[in-house]
Design a protein that fits this description.
15 helices; alpha/beta; Rossmann fold; 2 domains; single chain
Length: about 350
C-alpha cells in the first residue's frame, strides 16, 4: 500500500511537511505519492490523468489535506471523487485556517461527521501515526516519533505565519473616516500651505533604523546572488529552505539533526553532499552576511536555532525568476543523476 496526499497546489508547503514527517517515521520514499514534489510525483513520460487514475485504483491510503483552496480546485474535487468511489482507506486533515462549517465541506463527498483533525493538533497527530502503524512499517521508537512530531509542528507554525503575513499584505488598509470641521479645515489649509516641505520630509523618513536593516537584508541577499557571491552549497541550502518550507534551521547541539534531514533530502533529490558536509560553515557565512539571526538559545545562552531575517523570510517563497534560475543551476551542477547521453 502507498500513501497518497491529495492536496491543492497552493498548500504545497503543508504537503511537503507531511512528506518529511512520514519519511522521518521510516515510511519508504517509494510508498509516498505527492505530486507537488518531483521526487514523489508523476514519473517522466507518464500521462498525468492516466497515472493518477491507476494510482487511485490501486487503493492507496489517502490523506485528504483540506483547505479553502482545495474546494476551489476542480482537479482536487475530481481527485476526491475518484478516491471516494473506490472506497480508499483515508484520513482527513485540515489546514489551520480551514472552516469545517463551510458548505463545501458539509455538503461534499466526504462525510463531515467523520473525525478529521487540524494539522497542528499534536494529540490527534500522534493518534494518526498510531493508526498508520497498522498498514505501514513505522518506527516504534517513541523518542524519535516525538522529535519528528515536534519538528513537524514547528514547521507548520512557520508556514502558517508566512500565510498570515501574506494575507494581511493583500488586505487593503481602510481609510480613516475624517470628520469635517470648517474651522479645522481652515487652520489645516494654512499649515499645509506654509510648510509643505517639512511635512513631506517627515512623511517619507524611515521610522527606525531596524526597519532599514531588515529591508537591506533581502536586497543584499538578492544582489549577492545576482553578483555570483554565493557558493553552490549556499544556494542549495536556500533551495532546501524553499523546498521544505524551513525558514528556521537547527544549529548548536541540534545541528546533527538538521544535517540528517538534509542528507535525506539530498538523497531523495539526487543531490551530492555539498550542503550536509559543510552545513556549519554555510550557517556561519550566512550569519556574517547578516542573512540570519539567532531565534532560539539554550538555557546557557548558546544558539540552538537560527532563522532568516524577517524580510528574507517574508519573500523567500516568492523570489524573482532570475534568482530562482541561478539557484536551480547550482542544484543541477551538483546533481548525482546520470545524464541521458
Amino acid at each position: 500500500m502507498k500513501i497518497f496526499i491529495s492536496h491543492a497546489s497552493a498548500n504545497k508547503a503543508y504537503g511537503n511537511a507531511l512528506v518529511q514527517l512520514l519519511r522521518g517515521l521510516d515510511v519508504p520514499h517509494e510508498e509516498i505519492i505527492f505530486t507537488s514534489n518531483v521526487a514523489y510525483g508523476i514519473p517522466n513520460g507518464k500521462n498525468i490523468f492516466n497515472w493518477l487514475k491507476d494510482a487511485i485504483s490501486e487503493k492507496p491510503y489517502v490523506i485528504y489535506l483540506l483547505s479553502n483552496q482545495y474546494y476551489e480546485s476542480v482537479a482536487c474535487l475530481n481527485e476526491m471523487g475518484a478516491a471516494w468511489v473506490v472506497e480508499n482507506e483515508h484520513t482527513v486533515i485540515f489546514t489551520p485556517k480551514f472552516d469545517i462549517q463551510s458548505p463545501q465541506f458539509q455538503n461534499g463527498a466526504l462525510d463531515p461527521r467523520e473525525i478529521g483533525f487540524y494539522i497542528n493538533d499534536e494529540d490527534r497527530l500522534l493518534v494518526f501515526i498510531e493508526q498508520l502503524k497498522k498498514s505501514f512499517n513505522i518506527t516504534s521508537n517513541s523518542v524519535v516519533t516525538n522529535q519528528k512530531v515536534k519538528a513537524f509542528l514547528q514547521t507548520i507554525s512557520e508556514i502558517s505565519k508566512v500565510e498570515e503575513k501574506s494575507v494581511k499584505e493583500k488586505v487593503p488598509t481602510k481609510k480613516k473616516e475624517v470628520i469635517s470641521n470648517p474651522l479645522f479645515d481652515l487652520i489645516s489649509a494654512d499649515i499645509f500651505a506654509a510648510e509643505p516641505e517639512k511635512i513631506d520630509t517627515v512623511k517619507t523618513q524611515p521610522t527606525t533604523k531596524e526597519t532599514t536593516v531588515k529591508k537591506d537584508s533581502y536586497e543584499r541577499i538578492t544582489k549577492d546572488i545576482r553578483d555570483s557571491k554565493l557558493k553552490d552549497e549556499e544556494l542549495i541550502l536556500i533551495h532546501y529552505a524553499i523546498d521544505t518550507s524551513r525558514v528556521r534551521l537547527m544549529t548548536g547541539w541540534q545541528e546533527e539533526s538538521e544535517i540528517d534531514n538534509i542528507k535525506e533530502w539530498e538523497d531523495i533529490n539526487n543531490i551530492n553532499n555539498a550542503v550536509s558536509s559543510r552545513y556549519g560553515n554555510i550557517l556561519r557565512r550566512f550569519e556574517l552576511r547578516k542573512y540570519t539571526e539567532v531565534s532560539q538559545t539554550t538555557g546557557s545562552g548558546n544558539p540552538k536555532e537560527v532563522k532568516f531575517n524577517s524580510e528574507i523570510e517574508d519573500n523567500i517563497l516568492d523570489l524573482p525568476e532570475d534568482i530562482l534560475k541561478i539557484i536551480e543551476d547550482a542544484v543541477n551542477r551538483n546533481s548525482t543523476e546520470e545524464l541521458p547521453f
